[in-house]
Amino acid sequence: MCGIIGIVSKNLFSSEDLLRALKRLEYRGYDSFGYATNSGILEKDIGEIRLLSSNECTTAIGHTRWATHGGVTKLNAHPHADCKNEIFIVHNGIIENYLELKEKLRGHVFRSETDSEVIAHYLEEKLKTKPMREAIIDFINEAEGTFAVVVLQKSGQQLYAFKRDSPLVLGLAGDANIFASDIYAFSDKTNKAVFFEDDEFAEVSDSSYAFYNKSGNMLDKKIYEFEWKEEESEMKFDHYMLKEIYEQPAVAERLINSLRTVQADKLENLVSLIKNSRRIIFIAVGTSYHASLLGVYFLHKAGVEAQTIIASEFKDYANVDENTLVIAITQSGETMDLIDAVKHAKRKGAKIASLVNVPYSTVQRLSDLSLQIEAGQEICVAATKSFMNQVILLLSLAREFGYDVNPEKISEVMRSVFGKEEKIKSIARSLSASKDLYIIGRGLSYPVSREIALKLKEISYVHAEGMMGGELKHGTLALIEEGTPVIALINGNPHIISNAMEVKARGGRIIAVTNQKNLSVAKDLIEIDADNDAAFAIAAIIAGQLLTYYIAKEKDLPIDKPRNLAKSVTVK
Ligand code: G6P
Description:
Helix content is 34%, strand content 24%. 53% of the residues are buried. The chain is built from 17 helices and 25 strands. An eight-stranded antiparallel sheet has the order 3-2-4-1-10-9-11-15. It has a seven-stranded antiparallel sheet with strand order 5-6-7-8-12-13-14. The chain folds into three domains: 223 residues, 4-Layer Sandwich (Glutamine Phosphoribosylpyrophosphate, subunit 1, domain 1), CATH 3.60.20.10; 169 residues, Rossmann fold (3-Layer(aba) Sandwich), CATH 3.40.50; 146 residues, Rossmann fold (3-Layer(aba) Sandwich).
């Protein structure tokens, strides 16, 4: 959460260039934005990233905010400055002991309610007696919490950056060095990057860089060359969400192909890790957790015992030892709760495997084995194609153990759902005023019901609950009134039809997503051509994504950037 950037360039660049790079990080948070240049210009505001004044410079920092400490106001927007407006900082993370540090900075004039501002004043104070490098070392030693920080000094030709837990990377673009929260900020300029580890700091100019540990010793850092699939620059859809929904068959094919070729060895290694482990635990959050639920189901069908735990609860719900294989599933590879859980598992001696979208992300670097899900850049905050490829990878994995489903046929099934778009649109129109929605499923359709509910909440702002069909009668049925909409995922299981009937008998309106013929329980039908559970689940996910999209469109909501959310959640 929060995107930070710092650029030192041999050539002059404009505020427009800086904002363009910052825009590439906007999905990390979009409450406010701002930038500062080494000529001392500081511009910031709430709302969409936009040009506030036209300037040119060779050194600048920028920020896009997801608010934690302090409301969404111009004063709380980053960069923050010291008393004299000579030191500017951008920060992602939370300085947990900021009140304590602030207490020691009596006499300094604080302008915001944020924890971050303390960093600028802390450095100002230290610079009275020591150089920047030593001031940063002091900060790293004294600060508690999480941080990725870039520091700019007025008239300075260098930038400084340091981090703990929050992500930070340096891009080497030849004529410029670029600090950023992730590689996407500069992946249009270079594929060469140096990743920060915790408690490291770096000093860069336009032509050189140096990394240090918190004792001040210079480090020899590896330069990584990454491959990254950019989204097409031409946008033919109204929203990235729809574009990414439509990309799913193609990205699934790309993944399947990579599992047969460049990732074949990794898949084989994952299979042997699973065979050689006594306990298999998936960890994930949000949409990725729903993929892991499907993974448990697939593996179970193939005779492999596995469980999944939401990362933030992992420590309390699982025993982990050296015979455990933990499989982390994550699009960004930067989710803080997940990183925390991975580190915990590592300390306990577990092996770590991961399924990740963003190459060289923290989770990938912490893993003993990591497979790419090959979804490419996903811009919409809500995960669609990245979720789908997590599911496809898990399906391919289960197939290695004998689960009898061919992932290669699944892209056809996906495409067939696009043919139902008009029907889905008309159902979406009829649901756009609904305040509550329930989705029921059994077996493989249960995780799907959870995923559809999550999409409805985050994108369509509808209170939605995805649940096991069997659980309905244990409480939720009390909420069913005349016309209450319930989406039933009906895939041949006779009990789910009974559950839908129970809703109907109480006046509820059933919308069936189904591969059954002659279904009488619902008038609203989204019919799916899928002859097995996995294909049905995947098709139902797409139907749910489209339904969500069109409800949100009907309500004129900010589909790609839903309120209060961010794509990469780097706070606990
Ligand atoms: C955020 C995003 C979700 C995503 C979740 C997990 O909440 O808005 O779309 O599912 O994080 O992210 P990860 O990168 O770990 O898959």
